Amino acid sequence: MFKGILIEKDEQGYRAALKDIDDAALPEGNVTVRVSHSTLNYKDGLAITGKSPVVRKFPMVPGIDLAGVVEASTHPDYKAGDAVVLNGWGVGETHWGGLAQRARLNGDWLVPLPAAFTPAQAMAIGTAGYTAMLCVMALEDHGVTPDKGEVLVTGAVGGVGSVAVSILAKLGYQVAAVTGRPQEADYLKSLGASTVLDRAEFAAAGKPLVKERWAGAVDTVGSHTLANVCAATKYRGTVAACGLAGGMDFPSTVAPFILRGVTLAGVDSVMCPRAIRLKAWQRLASDLDVSKLALITQEIGLSDAISIAHKLIEGQVRGRVVVKVDA
Ligand code: NDP
What we know:
This protein is an alpha/beta fold. It contains ten helices and 15 strands. Helix 1 (about 40-50) crosses helix 10 (about 305-315) and helix 2 packs across helix 3 (about 160-170).
């Protein structure tokens, strides 16, 4: 038996609870992992609270991220004792995930734990941090270098936003951070933001084009915020769009794209090819200051994960949450 969060949906309704789970209930897979740490991402919050239908099979163990040690493997790349990390691939949505002490997975989904990080640090980064790195790489791929001007990060106090601000500042970009929590301005400045802006300025419908300001942007919010960011992006600038914390819609016009040559670069972490994942983790090892990671992160136990997931969805959590699963 092992402890894990189980989401059930039946005639008694949708509910998540910490349970003792039988090993025999684990799904199919060629690698069994003893999970030491997991995390809470926005998607885990949606799964645990049931706010959006991200869970596709029931019962489900949520947790789109995990770090741990291989207990048993028939996969050629992994053997017992190997330290591994997993992000995405539908784990925690269609296949049992990381918010449990044991997971059984397809070894093709795993990456070796990068030598630069402890399991707890890898989970402090988690999907949110690895997505932030993919967004920064998308800006670089489109020629947004620090000399091109200010870059913007929306949803900046959240997990993706906090890591994006930290990486961009370390790489020498001048970073403006958008937040609905002005009381966190000092936090954002400690991560390297030079300007903190109120998210209310971005939240309402705006003009198709406004004065050019941003050389690039990382957007975690979507909806009017993304449209307004595109409208103020400089000629040939790039906006990396990864999130929908403010809404799934995109009420924009083609004007920024056809009149200013702006690129809207979509970023997906879930099915991202392995080679790019490995590159993103290598870049995190070199371009993320681990002392900033400590500022961003709080650690909780598995028994607190459900209540903190509700807070996360209510926008009350700062930065990243690591769940110590083996406590
Ligand atoms: P968090 O909950 O940690 O952060 C979200 C942040 O968005 C909040 O902290 C808040 O920032 C801001 N926000 C919340 N609600 C609103 C709103 N109504 N209007 C404007 N801003 C809002 O989530 P994550 O950082 O983990 O994820 C951020 C987004 O990125 C989510 O939509 C998530 O689904 C998506 N995501 C996508 C991935 C992909 O592969 N494409 C991978 C990972 C995440 P503040 O308090 O500073 O205003």
